[in-house]
């Protein structure tokens, strides 16, 4: 057994994939439930998609369920997505399904990857590329360790026909665009908990917020000033699905 061969195998395989994914159809920032669902739906339709996740682990805020009771609730409207992914759930009462948070996070990640999503973890989106027409044309990335160590190291960029901000409560990508682009994009910030309204509005809020940039999941409510909803996750899954549908039309437009 040779340590250098092991090191070469890792380095060559990783860099080859990174090079391959520097040009994608869709780039997603954040591998929480909305980003993973969007990725899964895109890859299932043969769209070339990469997810960039700043943490070591994927799954975002799902693992801990509600208050570390590792169960999540999914409403009837989104139960079909759990079923399609093969995630077990049981009806708690009419319209409310309970699933295991760990099974959901792990299965969503696995199904997304098996469908063809490429996930790069430990990479943070720190900026975007914006062209003359105000169009977002890609993401600007750096190792998460760089910001953790408070270093100044210049980033690398990847090009995409559509970008999805699925960074959760922080709406990181939209905040950068609001700050730097001069576009009429304002991040209003999420409002206090109101599950019914939060879950209803999240799907409406999932949209193209400036040319080339879609927002999904909790970031969509943060951008549009809608409420948080606690540990109900159907809205995240439905938002990811809608973001994928919108991204597909953007990719097709880009190719026309
Ligand atoms: C790369 C980044 C960056 C960055 C963040 O928080 P998430 O789970 O987001 P959603 O929207 O898929 O799901 C939200 C849900 O988990 C939740 O928080 C709910 C339902 N809250 C309700 C309530 O009342 O609180 O995942 C976002 C992911 C995370 O993994 C982050 O690490 C990652 O995005 N991320 N990745 N570059 N700049 N910022």
Task: Provide the fold topology.
Elements: H1 3-20, E1 23-29, H2 33-44, E2 49-53, E3 71-75, H3 76-85, E4 89-93, E5 96-100, H4 101-115, E6 118-121, E7 123-130, E8 136-143, H5 144-148, E9 156-165, H6 172-180, H7 195-205, E10 207-210, E11 213-215, H8 218-224, H9 234-255
Parallel strand pairs: 1-2, 1-9, 2-6, 9-11
Antiparallel strand pairs: 3-5, 4-5, 7-8, 8-9, 10-11
Helix pairs in contact: 2-4, 2-9, 3-9, 7-8, 7-9
Description:
There is one protein chain. With 256 residues, this protein is of the alpha/beta class. The chain has a single domain (3-252), classed as FAD/NAD(P)-binding domain (3-Layer(bba) Sandwich). It has helices at 3-20, 33-44, 76-85, 101-115, 144-148, 172-180, 195-205, 218-224, 234-255; strands at residues 23-29, 49-53, 71-75, 89-93, 96-100, 118-121, 123-130, 136-143, 156-165, 207-210, 213-215. A hairpin with a 5-residue loop joins β7 (123-130) and β8. α3 packs across α9 (234-255) and α7 runs parallel beside α9 (234-255). The protein is globular, with a radius of gyration of 18 Å. The mean pLDDT is 97. The structure holds ligand 48H. Residues 29-35, 52-55, 60-62, 124-125, 166-170, 172, 193, 217-219, 228-230, 233, 236 line the site of ligand 48H.
